[in-house]
Fold this sequence. Notes:
The structure holds two protein chains of two kinds.
Chain A: H1 4-23, H2 29-37, H3 40-56, E1 62-67, H4 73-81, E2 87-93, H5 96-105, E3 111-115, E4 129-132, H6 140-149, E5 155-161, H7 176-183, E6 188-195, E7 200-206
Parallel strand pairs in A: 1-2, 1-4, 2-3, 4-5
Antiparallel strand pairs in A: 5-7, 6-7
Helix pairs in contact in A: 1-2, 3-4
Chain B: E1 2-7, H1 14-27, E2 32-37, E3 48-52, H2 64-67, E4 78-82, E5 86-88, E6 106-109, E7 128-136, H3 140-149, H4 154-160, H5 164-170, E8 176-177, E9 183-185, E10 197-199
Parallel strand pairs in B: 1-2, 1-4, 2-3, 6-8, 9-10
Antiparallel strand pairs in B: 4-7, 5-10, 6-7
Amino acid sequence: MFDSQILYRALKVSEEIYDEAMYGDNDLYRIKDLSHALDTNHWLSKQWLVDKLADHYEWKEGSALIVGGWYGLTAFLMRQRWKDSCMLIESSDMDPMCQQYGWKLFPHYNINFTTLDVNSKPDLSSYSIIINTSCEHMEQEDIKWLISNKSEQCLFVGQSNNYVDLDSHINCYPDAGFFVDDLELDEILLEEELNLGGFDRFMVIGK
Amino acid sequence: MNFVFCKFGSKYSTDYVNKLVMDLQLVVDSANFICYTDYNDEQFLPEIDVVHNLGRPTLKRVWPKLRLLSADFPISGKCVYLDLDTVVKSNPFDALESDHDWSTLHTIPAPWKHNDRYGRINSYDVTHHSSAMVWEAGASNVTKVWDHFNGEYRDYFMRKYVGIDRFLAHENLPLKPLPSNFARSTKHQQEDCGQAIVTFEEVDVRLSDLV
């Protein structure tokens, strides 16, 4: 499951953050955040997404936008499945530091890291896949905006969870059914749950 | 003068808000009472101006408290905020000095939080708490607290900080300590020196404990 090269780079980035903390910007929590982003449950849930997406997206080429992409693990795992550069992969997050550390963690995988706030209403017309694995962190209004403003044939892949005990989880659901119903997709291709120990992660693929 | 409260979630009932208002009415001649809440207003006393959840960004637990400091929060003038697990002993406005700097957010000094285990500045050095806060609505030094929180790092802040006390301290936001006669901590300051407010931070309380 884990890729030792990625974990090694995470250690090197952690070293850089520590050095920064000694001489400049003191934000050691980034080390913990990076560690969380590469936690087992994230590898499992992102790999789960890629495996299921491959069942419903049969083309080699395309353009994928990942919103709330954090430091880029979803983009990296996607690139392992869609190795050809004719699949454009963009990993975005509203936190600009995710772009900076994303490039460092995944430097040679032909992934474009960007800083993007969905509330800024970006142009979605060129994407064939839109992925949001951070629905629990995002305003429902913004997630629905993504769905209603993507092109008709563009796949939407969303993940959320029922882990309500974190302050930043502002948009959790009790189960996959409630999550999917609230998205009001025109077509649902997949609706599944993955038990991750103390909580469940839900996934929907649709249009 | 405004007394401001924040009731989000179910930890405290509306009875806590109503009790605070009734206690304040015993010690102040006239004041506005404002409660920011995600709750039905029917159970609040009629003299309380209820400000319903202002919407996005969606916040929960302690974080809605920061919204009180935003430029779009419908309030003007001098404000004293009290946590719902506090007790009023006398008029808090009287505990402030005549030249109090209203343009800067003030919180309660908590020197007992100082932990010298590393002998230098470290993440344990948060020597204030926000069971009570004092400010003038709309002051630029105050609204910048909300603006700083509500930017591109908002989600990161809510992961990084266990509460707003650390957020305020570690993000180096404009902050000053309230005078020592403003509030007394039940847990850390046994001696009653006539402070206007008694706080119960780090203590589980029931309404009967506050009577």
